[in-house]
Amino acid sequence: MKPTTPETKLSRFVAELDWDDLPPRVQDRVVEIWADAVANALAGRSAANTAAVEGLATALCGPGDSTVVGGGTLAPTGAALLNGYQITAFTMCDVYRPALCHVTPEVVPAVLAVAEAGDVSGRDLLTAIAAGLEVTTRLGLGVDYPVFRARGWHAPGVIGTIGAAMAAARALGLDAAGVCAAMGLGGSQAAGTFAALGTPAVKFHQARGAVSGLWAARFAAGGLGGAENILTHTDGGLLTTYAGGGRPGHITRQLGERWELEQISLRRWAAASSLQSLVAALLSVPADDLRPSDLVGVDVALPPTSYAMCGDMGWDDELSAMQSARYVTTVVLHDRQCWIEQFTADRRSDVPLAQFARARVSVDVGAGLPPSGVGLRITRRSGSPLVVHRDGAPGEPAEPLTRETIREKLAAVGGGSLDEVVFGVAGRSAAEVAAALRATPSSATAGRS
User: Are 106 and 249 in the same domain?
Assistant: First the structure.
C-alpha cells in the first residue's frame, strides 16, 4: 500500500484502533449510539414491511446461527440484511446531518454478524463499530456533500457501505492491507440514489449496505482484494466519480484526534430526521394552548432541504406518513405523542385526522432557517396566534439525547431487560451479547399498512 493516500491512512487507523484509544467521552458516545441502534432494531420487528423482508432473507439466504435482533437466527447474510432493515424501518435511527447519512443500519449489522461468529470481545465489538462510525462520517466530509447530493446520490448505500466493510474487517482482526482490501470491495458495491425517496427502496439502500459491508470483509479475509485507491483513483474512484474529486484531505485531517462520530445525531421520535425539530416545537407548547378544535390553521416553515423531502409527502403508508410534515404535525397536535402507534394503518385512516391535515395544515419553505430548524405560526379561534421557532432538534450534537432517554427508548420497545447487556457490552463477549439480543422479543406496537 502507498503510505500517504487517504485509503492507506484510513486502513491503518482502523486496523490499529483499540478501545482504549478512544477518549472516555467518545467511548460513552459509541455505547449510546450502539444502544440506540439496538432499540431501533427491536422496534423495527413490528414495522409494516419487516415480515416481507424476513421472508426474503430466509428464502434467499437460508437458516443459520447469526442473530436477528428480537427474532432468532438466520444465515449471516440474511441476518445482516434483516437487522439493517429493522434498525431503519421506523425512521428513528441515527443521522449524520452533514451528509444526510444513516450510519448504524449499515455498520452495526455487519459487525454483529462477524463478531458473534468469532472469539470477539465486547470491547472489540465496540471498537469495530466505532471504526465504522468514524470512517463513514469522515467519508461524508470527503464527498463534498453539496456536489455529491446534486448528482442524486443517497449517502447510506454509498459511504455507509464502505464504513460497514472496514468495520467488519476490524472485527475480523484484519491487518491494514486486509482492511484496505475490504474498503475497495465495499466501494465496488457503493450505490443508491434519491430517486428512491418515499419508497421502501430508501430502506433497502441501508440494509443492502450492511450486507455489502459483510461480504466485502469476508471476501477480503479470504484473500480476494479490491482496489487500493477506491476513493481517489482517477478512473472510477468514489470521490472522482460521485463527487467531482471531493475533498480527500478532509477525510484524514486530525484522524484519531478529533472524532467526527460525535456529530452523529440520534432521533427521539419515530419521524423523519428533518421533522424532529417540528415535533419538538409542537410538544413545547402546553396542550391547553393547542386544542385541535380551537385551531384555525397551522403554518409550518421548513428549511429548503427538509421541505424538498417532507413538504409535499402524503401518508398513504407507514413510511410516507413518518416523512410527511402535514401528517406529523396533525397527529402530534391530536395525540401529543410521536411514536409507533401514531403511524398504524388505523390511525392514518382516521377521517377527522386526515381532514385536519388537508384543510388546516400548510407547509412552505422558511427563508433563513438553519438546516434542521422549523418555524410555526398557529392561528387559534380564541387567543392570539402562537409563533414557535427552533434552530435544531433534540438528539443533535448541540442537544444530545441523554443516556436516560435512550434507556427509555429501549424500554419502550421491550428492551428493558437488555439494559445491563447493551450498556455493559464492554465487559462481555460478542457471542454473549448476541444471544441476549436474539432472545428478547420486541413489544413495539405493530404498524401495518
Answer: yes
**Do residue 386 and residue 411 come from a single domain?**
no
Q: Are 217 and 110 in contact (CB under 8 A)?
A: yes
| Cβ proximity of 214 and 114 under 8 Å | yes
Question: CB neighbours of 177 closer than 8 A, spacing ≥ 6?
Answer: 1, 11
- Rounded distance, CA 424 to CA 421, Å? 5
255, 166: one domain: yes
Q: How many CB atoms lie within 10 A of CB 351?
A: 7
CA distance readout (Å), 401 to 34, 265, 408: 13, 9, 11
Backbone dihedral angles phi then psi of residue 347, each to the nearest 5 degrees: -70, -40
Q: What is the CATH number of the domain that holds 61?
A: 1.10.4100.10
Q: Is the pTM of this model over 0.90?
A: yes
Residue 449 lies in a domain: no
Domain shared by 237 and 279, yes or no: no
C-alpha 287 chain-centroid distance: 31
Is there a single domain that holds both residue 212 and residue 337? no
Residues 282 and 222 in one domain: no
Residue 281 sits in a domain whose CATH number is: 3.30.1330.120
Using CA atoms, how far apart are residues 51 and 53, in angstroms rounded to an integer?
Answer: 5
Distances (CA, A) of 107 to 98, 126, 217, 338, 383: 18, 11, 12, 27, 50
| Total number of domains constituting the chain | 2
Q: Are residues 294 and 419 in the same domain?
A: no
Name the grid cell of 257. Answer: 484526534
Handedness of CA 321, 323, 326, 330 (dihedral sign): positive
10-residue stretch averages of pLDDT, the chain, 449 residues long:
87 98 98 98 94 96 97 96 97 95 98 96 98 98 97 97 98 98 98 92 96 98 94 97 97 98 97 96 95 96 95 94 97 97 96 97 95 96 93 96 96 93 97 95 57
CA 311 to chain centre: 21
Domain range enclosing 296: 273-390
d(CA 318, CA 322): 6
Q: Are 161 and 215 in contact (CB under 8 A)?
A: no
CB 169 within 8 A of CB 219: no
CB of 1 closer than 8 Å to CB of 227: no
Residues 80, 66: Cα–Cα separation, whole Å: 8
Q: Are residues 310 and 187 part of one domain?
A: no
